[in-house]
């Protein structure tokens, strides 16, 4: 058991240090990967044309999910993609599109990473979800949403939210 804990700590440290240092990473294409060239990323490079990315990012939800677990559970996160190069920006741009159920402006902050899972797009085949604390006027308790920057599918707004136009 101690060995397993030690391996987990070592892998977690590698993921943390790898994600916090500039590197020349390759984006692994999967059938669910977006066309990175349209998003301003140069394949197999860590350079990104941020101005182009912000205008063409494909994370604006256009529909509201009917699935009550979408975004609310680690088993059904919101997959915004982007990996290391653009993942953090994609998460912020996605969250900036959400409104409360009656059009209230939301505020959010990242609580941290959690919930490791297997993905071909992560370091050593492992990814971590990010937990975001969401609030808006009139909400009694904060809402937690889980976002995945390693895998991509067209994001929707979670049930109970609306979308900025």
Describe this structure in words.
The protein has 165 residues and is α+β, with helices and mostly antiparallel strands. It has one domain (2-163). It is built from three helices and six strands; from the N terminus they run ααβαβββββ. The strands form two sheets. A four-stranded mixed sheet has the order 1-5-4-3, with helices on one face. Strands 2-6 form a two-stranded antiparallel ribbon. β4 and β5 (143-148) form a beta hairpin. The protein is globular, with a radius of gyration of 16 Å. The termini are far apart. Residues 16-48 and 52-56 have low confidence and may be disordered.
Question: Could you outline the blueprint of secondary structure elements for this entry?
Answer:
Elements: H1 2-19, H2 50-56, E1 78-79, H3 83-95, E2 98-99, E3 107-123, E4 126-135, E5 143-148, E6 162-163
Parallel strand pairs: 1-5
Antiparallel strand pairs: 2-6, 3-4, 4-5
User: Which H/E pattern describes the elements?
Assistant: HHEHEEEEE
Percent of residues in beta strands: 15-25%
Number of helices: 3
Give the helix/strand class: alpha+beta
Give me the count of strands. 6
What number of structural domains do the residues give? 1
Stretches with pLDDT under 50, minimum 5 residues: 16-48, 52-56
Strand order of the largest sheet: 1-5-4-3
């Amino acid at each position: 058991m101690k060995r397993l804990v030690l391996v987990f700590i070592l892998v977690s440290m590698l993921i943390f240090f790898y994600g916090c240092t500039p590197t020349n990473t390759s984006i692994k294409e999967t059938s669910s990967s977006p066309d990175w060239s349209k998003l301003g990323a140069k394949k197999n490079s860590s350079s990104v044309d941020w101005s182009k990315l912000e205008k063409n990012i494909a994370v604006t939800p256009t529909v509201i999910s009917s699935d009550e677990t979408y975004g609310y559970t680690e088993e059904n996160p919101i997959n915004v993609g982007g990996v290391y190069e653009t993942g953090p920006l994609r998460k912020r741009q996605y969250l900036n599109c959400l409104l409360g159920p009656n059009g209230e402006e939301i505020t959010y902050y990242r609580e941290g990473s959690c919930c490791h899972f297997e993905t071909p797009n992560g370091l050593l085949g492992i990814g971590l979800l990010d937990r975001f604390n969401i609030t808006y006027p009139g909400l009694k308790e904060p809402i937690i949403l889980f976002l995945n920057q390693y895998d991509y599918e067209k994001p929707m707004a979670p049930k109970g939210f609306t979308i900025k136009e």
